[in-house]
Structure formats: C-alpha cells, structure tokens
Specification:
The complex is a heterodimer of chains A (616) and B (343).
Chain A lengths: L5 E5 L1 E9 L4 H14 L3 E7 L14 E9 L10 E6 L2 H7 L3 E10 L5 H7 L15 E5 L1 H11 L4 H5 L2 H12 L4 H11 L4 H20 L5 E5 L6 E8 H16 L3 E5 L6 H8 L7 E4 L3 H13 L3 E6 L1 H17 L3 E7 L16 H6 L8 E4 L6 H15 L2 E7 H5 L1 E5 L46 E3 L14 H17 L15 E8 L3 H13 L4 E6 L1 E3 L5 H5 L2 E8 L4 H9 L6 E4 L8 H15 L1
Parallel strand pairs in A: 1-8, 2-5, 5-6, 6-7, 10-11, 10-12, 12-13, 13-15, 14-15, 18-19, 18-21, 21-22
Antiparallel strand pairs in A: 2-4, 3-4, 3-16, 9-16, 14-20
Helix pairs in contact in A: 1-6, 1-7, 2-3, 4-6, 4-8, 6-8, 7-8, 9-10, 9-14, 11-12, 17-20
Chain B lengths: L12 H4 L13 H11 L10 E5 L14 E4 L5 H11 L4 E7 H7 L1 H10 L4 E6 L34 H7 L4 E6 L3 H13 L4 E6 L11 H4 L4 H4 E4 L6 E2 L5 E6 L2 E6 L21 H8 L7 E8 L5 H15 L5 H5 L5 E4 L1
Parallel strand pairs in B: 1-2, 1-3, 3-4, 4-6, 5-6, 7-11
Antiparallel strand pairs in B: 5-11, 8-9, 9-10
Helix pairs in contact in B: 2-7, 4-5
The chains are: A alpha/beta (616), B alpha/beta (343).
Chain lengths: 616, 343
C-alpha cells in the first residue's frame, strides 16, 4: 500500500491505551507490544487497571490502561508520559490527561463523547470544546460505530460486535506506526484459535481501522521506529510474574529436583501460581491451598520431602506466612517465598505498586529469624533472581524472600532468551543413603548449612521441628547457652551468603558528587534518570541493590566515594533506615513516593538536581 | 510347601523405639497409643524408612519425638498442610498425622476439613481429651457444653464439635473411633486406617490425667463400657451390651436402641454395619450417637473408596508429560512467541 504522507523517524515512543475495564485495552496493548517486538523494537510495558473486575462503566474509577514504550534505542521503563493516547471514553481521557506529552496525538472514540458520558466521567464542560485539548493532535474517530457495522456484517451478534472495537484501535495504530497488518492478523488467529468466526470478524475490523486511518487527513503524519540496534538473537516479551515462575522452573531443572509451589491466589502474585499449574509437563506441582498459611506450610512439607519448594504471595499473605517462615528458619529447610509487593497496609491498593514490605521481609517474624532477602529489578530479571533465590536457598539451606512488585509483575520487557547450559549449577547439600556420620544439625564449615536428608532415604531417619535444636544432634534443647549458639549460627549462616553473591555494581563514575541508591523494581526509572543526568554532564552515579540481606560486601566501600547519598524508594524510607542500621557512618538523604505509582524519570531528575545544587 | 499369607514384616517394634524419655505424664493415654502404633507399623508392611510422622502443637504433637521414623513437629494446627505437601511430593511415603482436639478442631480446623475434602492418603490420629493440656487446662472445641475450665469458670457456653461430624461434612472417606484404654481395639482400628486409601481420621478418646481426668469415664469405665460402647464390625449386626442382648435397629426412618427378645425384636431386625455404604445417613447417625440415649460408636464407622488426591495429581502429571512437545526448560524458553533480532 503506497502512502502519501510524512513519516517521522522516532527513537522511542510511548503509547497508552485507555478505556473501560471491558474495552479490551489490555489485549490491544499486548497485540501492539508483540507486533513491535516482532519487528525488533525494544519495549517495556505496564498495565494499569482497577482492582474491581468491572467497575462502573464510563467512570474514572473504571478506567483500565495499558502503556507501552517502544524504542529504536534501549528502553528501561514504560515511560513517564505518552506520545499517543487512545481514549475510548471521556473518563479515559480525564484519567490520562496529566500523563500526556506536549503535542501528543490523542485518539478518541467520538461515539462515546456525549453528555451522558461526560457526566459519568465527572466533566462539567465538554472537554472537546473547553480548550483543554489545545496543542494536542486530536483524532475523533467513530470507533464504536464503524467497528460495530463491520462486525455485524461479518455475522457477529450485537454483544460480540461491541467487543471488536479494540481491533479498530489496533488497525489505527498499525497504520500510524507503519506496521504490517499480517502480524496483527496472526495474533488474532492465535488468540481466537478455536473460534474462526471471531477471527474473521476481528480481522475485518482491524482492516477497517487501518483503512479509516489512511483515509482521514487528521493522521497525515505517521511514525516509524527502527529495530533496536545492538540487540541480537532470540527474544521473548516477558512479564515479571511469568519470568519469576520460569526462573523457579529453571532452578528446579538445574538442581535436579522437582518444583513444588504451594500458594493461594492473591493480586498481584496470582499469575505465578497460574503459570506453574500449566507446567505439569515439566513435573512441576502447584498446590492451590485453602489459605496463605497452608500455601507455605505445604511448601515446607514438600521441602522436607526433597523438593525445590516455593510459595508466592503479596504483602497481606506474607504477614500470614510469618510464623511458618520462622519454622523454616528453625528447621533450616530450603524455601523460596516470593512476595509481589502492592500498596498497603491491609488490603490497601491491591493492583498498585509499592516497596513497603521490605521491613516485613527482613524482620516480620517472632524471635531472631534471619532470612536471605533479595529483590528483582526488572520484569525480565525476575527470571534471574528467582533462579538465584532458589540456588541460595538450596545451597545454604535457608528460606529466601524474593521481593518483586506489582510494577514488575505485570510489566513486560524484551528478554534475551538464555540457554540452560549457561545457567550456574545448583548443588544442594544432599546426604548419601545410610551415611553413618549424618547428624541433622551437623554443618558444612564453609557455608554453615546443615545437610538435607530426605524421608524415604534408608538409614537417615531423624526428627525436626520448631522447638530449639541442640547444636549438631538436632535434639530438642532448652539449654540457655545452646540457644545462644544456635541463634548466632543461624545469623552467621545467612551473613556468610555475602561470600557467595556478586559485589554491588555502580552505574556511572566510581566517585562523584551524588550516588543515587535504589533497590528492586525502581531500577528502570532510576537508571534512565541517572543516565540522562550523566549525559547532561552531572556528577552522579547509581547503585541499585538486588541483594538486601546480606548486603554485598563492598557496600560501605562504594558509599565512601560519594559526597551525597540519595536513597529513592516507594515507601517512607525503609531501605534508608536499614542502611542506617547497617552502615551508620554515612548520611542518607531520601526521596520517597507512596502513591501506588512507580517512580518517574522526570521527578527523579528534579530531586537529583536539587541535591546537586546543594553541594555547590 | 506352606504359604505364609501374613504380610512380610520388614521391621519390628524395636526398630521404632528411640530409647529417649517419653515426656508425657504418667497415666496419659498417649503412652498406650504410642505403644500400639509401634505394634501396628511392622504389620503394615511399610518400610521403616518410608514412614513419616507429622504433628502440630500440643501434648499429642510431641509424638514424633518418641518414635524412630522421619518426623516433623511443626506449627499449631498446621500438620495437615505440611503432610499434604509431603504426600504431593512423594506419594510413596506412609504419612501419619498426630494431633489433638485443640490443634485440629480449633486453630487447624480449616486445614482439617480441606485435607479431608481432598482425600489425601494420610492417617490422622486425633487425640481427643476434650481439653487444652499443654497450656494447662483451658476448654477446647470438643469440651462438653457447660464444663468448668480455667477459661470457663462459669461453664462453657459453646456447643462442642464432634470430629466425626466434621469429617462427614467434609466428605471424609474414613472415620473410626477408639479408646486409649483398649489396645486391641486401637490396633484393629489403626491397621484399618493404614490400609485405607484416602484420608483416615481416627478419633481416640484419650484421658488427660491432669486437666480432664476421667472425662470419658462414662464411656470407658470398666463397669459400664460394654453397655455404653458399641464396637462396629463390617457385615455384622449392631449388637452390644454385657449380655450381648442390646442392639440398634431402624424404625420409621429413625435409629433406635432395642433389646433382643423384647417386643418381638430378633437379631435379624438389627442394622448390619456397612462402612462402605455410599449412602452416608447411617454413618452420620453412628458418629452422632451419645449417652444416655445411645451407646457410643467404636471401630470403623465409615470406609469408602474415592479418588485419592495425589494419585489423580500424578496421573495428570504423567498425562501432561506424555502429551507435550516441551520436554525441558530449553524447549519452554523457545516455545510460543519468540522474536529474532538481527541487531
């Protein structure tokens, strides 16, 4: 199809799809992302949806969004602000106006822009005529009407026809970004594999959207984003939750053990359970328990029985699992606890992101109860840190809490597919059958782990439990001195892990005016901000922590090379407090945000510049 | 050559003795249960290295420390999910849960019903002494209404659970009742529990000498037990009593206690016990029977065949393995939507 219009080459572009929960915006977003990945763009995505399945239609509370950032250069975040907004109704427009770049293209479904919808969205004036959209390129497309007409012609009933409008949007976007429609068709053929009538109708609507865009003059400019340079090989578009599940599966294979996940559905961690339930063909067992406590305790049973045992949850679930984590600490069994953080306390903001479970992960149990705490920092590296959580847990015989968050869990990015032969080995400290020297709490002198004898193994019968254990023999002991020895041994075992994890890396200069410190899922925003500042000639560097307990050995050494340290996190300062307790010789400035939203590059730059100014 | 049909004993009672002190009070019913379990295990034909005892918290739950098997003394109420995880990991293990009325009926009540609902093949030995022993004498969910305890100085105002009713309500496939003072009965019942495929619940009416001494004396007392208990046996009419002249029969859709020879009642009128009856009405009636209207039912009340959770689970695993083209992680990583970038 020849095009007689201007094509603008872009390095990167951010598109936001927004509509009612039932408008299919998540699907269109995924379709557009996959298409971009297919032609070789780098990408990062973030769905943003309400916790209600179908909140009242047309209201701001019911707006479901999907943001995708694609690039010819590498992209690390879904983007602060959108270049293109698709708003299916006035509420979607209202909810997203503040996230628009100047001059952005705004595509609206004009069929829903009437007084009834303005009222539902809480507009007192018609937003199309109150000058609020001045400066934007507004495309008023009759999306509902045209898609319904085409779908009805294709034989769908009214209800089915209503659901095709997201494909009209997709068609518009394919034209706007010069995408091959065939990729969109293939996506639909796969999506509706068993429903040929839906495939046919949706493809027809997709074409209708494309043709409409070509015909109208409002879209005389289209965009082209070249394939990303320097990225070569095979890639997948991975969400954090899928990557976490696959990391656990990979670790089980590498360790030569079966995977067991005991879990209870909870937003935003549920997809991990769902993903593992699909992997019986790899021998993985997912046990949907009756509650959070049964989730973790079934995993502890599985660990006793020799599995790579895991449980997945979010903050409120982690609270319920606290006592059982203590049991795993006492029995020194391997166990991976994945906590996909969300806004809290209590039910809080179930679908929104936050980093406020750090203290709970570190200290939220009775007694002196040390565990390894690590955090993933991008959707794709959830794979690596889930793998690493399992490796550390198995090799050091201790529970590990892996912190993810809603932003990582639901966001996605392109991920270079690893080869299993390149993944590190995992060697759990198993015991040979009939080993006469076996004692339940005898330790490896290097790592201080006890050894793992599995029920069913001949000649190794033993008993473990939550009562304090005598050193070496593991008999029940109430001896005061023994208790102190054991408390210190359990702590030392976890601290020893520092000898087995990588040193902390710094992005940017080894010494500078400002070190920005972050941890976990804020990486994308912070690294983008720091790189921008470095490009602007500012004296700034970044240390983003994945290993939290224990901290990397070189942490204090790094901190000593910067004039100021600014700790940025999505809570009131939990990591900053932790650093103060571990390395009190430094002063820690804070940047905190508690809005259920990720950090934005722009706000980070403002804060960094403020601190840099103060140094002068 | 004579054939020996007895199961091959690959272990003996001695194999299960640990030698350390058993720290229950003198006179506690736990001692008799422990001894009986050690007698039964060699007769089950299970390898001693394949036996696991799991417990929660409470007096009963110290059990794993007193027997030489793999053992896990866990958290209050949580023995059931721990055992579930063990069975879902290795179905070949013989898993026994030792618990009490506080552990299983109160803090672990949720896990109790869900384990039974799933019908995981484990054996639950429920020590019912109708009191919290380890915390020294507070009422439990099975304490009879009105009882004065440390936390009910004016008498409890709560209705008591019957473990059998909960088991039935959770679609249990096996329920039996026995008493700590009758080793022969315990042995029969424990063996039947071990042989049952699915969750076996055994309620043991157990005496706490310190905090609820003689709580079961109306049932277990030497002078009354024959008249106040009925031991149920498959295929046999429901007869009990010192003179073996009392029985249970159905009249107008109700169970009645009758005397053989009175009002024309003969042995043929009595209900014949069928623990495998798919209609659970009689099993409900039996678990609910109380003094003084009825004798208390003992023995295997219910034992029906049903799908065992872990068998179905591993059938699904085998099926999935057979059907898939994705045999390992590398296959999975390269499955579905993969994009090639030429850089």
């Amino acid at each position: 199809m020849a095009k007689n219009h201007r094509v603008i080459e872009l390095d990167e572009v951010v598109v936001k799809f927004a509509g009612d929960s039932g408008d299919g915006m998540q699907l269109t977003g995924n379709q557009f992302s996959d298409t971009s990945a297919f032609i070789g763009n780098d990408l990062s995505t973030f769905p943003d949806y309400p916790s209600e399945i179908r909140a009242p239609q047309g209201t701001v509370a019911g707006v479901s969004g999907f943001q995708v950032h694609i690039g010819h250069k590498e992209v690390s975040t879904p983007g602060d602000q959108a270049d293109v907004l698709v708003a299916m109704n006035p509420a979607a427009l209202k909810a997203n106006m503040k996230w628009l770049k100047d001059g952005a293209t705004v595509i609206i479904d004009i069929d829903n822009f009437d007084n009834k919808h303005y009222k539902k969205a809480g507009y007192t004036e018609d937003p199309l005529h109150d000058h609020s959209l001045e400066g934007y390129n507004v495309v008023k497309a009759p999306i509902s009407m045209l898609s319904r007409d085409v779908a009805l012609q294709q034989g769908l009933d009214n209800k089915g026809a209503e659901k095709t409008r997201n494909q009209f949007v997709a068609g518009l976007l394919y034209w706007l970004f010069n995408r091959d429609l065939k990729i969109g068709e293939d996506f639909l053929k796969e999506k509706f594999k068993t429903k040929p009538a839906l495939v046919k109708a949706n493809i027809a609507v997709l074409h209708e959207g494309y043709n409409y865009a070509e015909t109208i003059e409002a879209l005389s400019t289209t965009f082209h984003v070249d394939p990303v340079k320097g990225k070569k090989g095979l890639f997948r578009n991975m969400t954090g939750n899928q990557a976490t599940a696959w990391g656990l599966l990979a670790a089980a294979e590498k360790a030569g053990l079966g995977l067991f996940l005991g879990s209870y559905p909870i937003t935003p961690a549920t997809e991990i359970l769902q993903e593992i339930t699909k992997r019986k063909h790899l021998g993985a067992i997912a046990f949907q328990a009756e509650d959070e406590i049964a989730g973790i305790t079934s995993a502890i049973g599985a660990s006793f029985a020799g599995k790579l045992a895991c449980t997945s949850t979010s903050g409120p679930g982690l609270a319920l699992k606290g006592e059982a984590i203590g049991l795993a600490v006492m029995t020194e069994l391997p166990l991976v606890i994945v906590n996909v953080q969300r806004g809290g306390p209590s039910t809080g903001l179930p679908t929104k992101t936050e980093q406020s479970d750090l203290m709970q992960a570190l200290y939220g149990r009775s007694g002196e109860s040390p565990v390894i705490v690590i955090a993933s920092s991008s959707p794709a590296n959830c794979f690596d840190f889930a793998f690493q959580a399992a490796k550390l847990s198995l090799e050091h015989m201790t529970p590990v809490i892996l912190l993810s968050d809603s932003y990582l869990a639901n966001g996605s990015e392109l991920w270079p597919i690893p080869e299993m032969k390149n993944m590190p080995d995992i060697v759990p400290p198993l015991v040979a059958d009939n080993d006469e020297d076996y004692e339940p709490y005898k330790r490896d002198p290097g790592r201080l782990n006890r050894y793992w004898a599995i029920p069913g193994q001949p000649g190794l019968r033993h008993r473990i439990g939550g009562l304090e254990k005598a050193d070496v023999t593991g008999e029940v002991s109430h001896d005061p001195k023994n208790h102190e020895v054991m408390v210190k041994l359990r702590e030392a075992k976890v601290q020893k892990v520092a000898d087995f994890i990588p040193e902390q890396e710094v992005i940017g200069p080894e010494s500078a005016d400002l070190l920005v410190v972050g941890w976990g899922g804020t990486y994308g925003a912070i690294v983008s901000a720091v790189n921008d500042l470095i490009e602007e000639g500012k004296s700034v560097a970044l240390a983003q922590f994945n290993y939290i307990n224990p901290l990397p050995r070189n942490t204090a050494e790094i901190f000593s090379h910067y004039k100021k340290i600014l700790v940025c996190e999505l809570n009131l300062g939990q990591f900053a407090s932790y650093l103060r307790s571990k390395h009190p010789q430094f002063e820690y400035l804070q940047y905190n945000k508690i809005q259920g939203l990720p950090l934005f590059i722009s706000e980070l730059k403002v804060k960094c510049n403020e601190v840099l100014e103060s140094i002068k | 050559m004579a054939h020996n049909f007895e199961p091959v004993a690959i272990s003996t009672k001695e194999d299960f003795k640990l030698g350390g002190p058993v720290k229950w009070c003198a006179g506690c019913g736990g001692h008799a249960v422990l001894s009986t379990v050690m007698n039964v295990l060699p007769e089950t034909g299970i390898d001693k290295d394949d036996v696991v005892f799991v417990s929660g918290i409470g007096c009963s739950s110290r059990f794993p420390y007193y027997i030489n098997t793999y053992g896990f003394h866990s958290l209050h109420g949580r023995a059931n999910p721990i055992a579930s995880g063990i069975k879902a990991s290795n179905p070949n293990l013989s898993v026994w849960i030792v618990t009490g009325d506080g552990d299983s009926m109160a803090i672990g009540g949720n896990h109790f019903i869900h384990l039974i609902r799933r019908n995981i093949n484990v054996n639950i030995l429920l020590f019912n002494n109708k009191i919290y022993g380890l915390t020294k004498g507070q009422y439990s969910p099975t304490t009879p209404k009105g009882s004065v305890t440390k936390t009910s100085p004016d008498g409890t105002i709560e209705n008591a659970f019957k473990p059998g009713e909960l088991t039935m309500g959770a679609q249990g496939t096996f329920f039996a009742r026995t008493v700590d003072s009758d080793p022969k009965m315990m042995k029969k019942v424990f063996k039947a529990a071990a042989e049952h495929k699915g969750t076996s619940v055994v309620e043991i009416l157990l005496n706490c000498v310190i905090f609820a001494n003689q709580v079961h004396k109306d049932i277990t007392g030497k002078d009354v037990r024959e008249d106040h208990q009925i031991f149920l046996e498959e295929g046999k009419p429901m007869i009990f009593g010192k003179d073996r002249n009392q029985g249970l029969m159905m009249r107008c859709n109700k169970m009645e206690k009758v005397t053989i020879g009175e009002n024309g009642v003969t042995e043929d009128d009595l209900i014949v016990h069928d623990p495998q009856d798919a209609d659970d009405s009689n099993h409900y009636r039996l678990v609910r029977m109380e003094l003084p209207e009825f004798p208390v039912a003992m023995g295997v009340i219910r034992a029906i065949d049903s799908t065992v959770f872990e068998s179905a689970l591993f059938d699904q695993v085998e099926h999935a393995r057979k059907e898939t083209k994705i045999k390992n992680m590398d296959d999975l990583l390269h499955s579905g939507n993969v994009f090639e970038s030429k850089g």
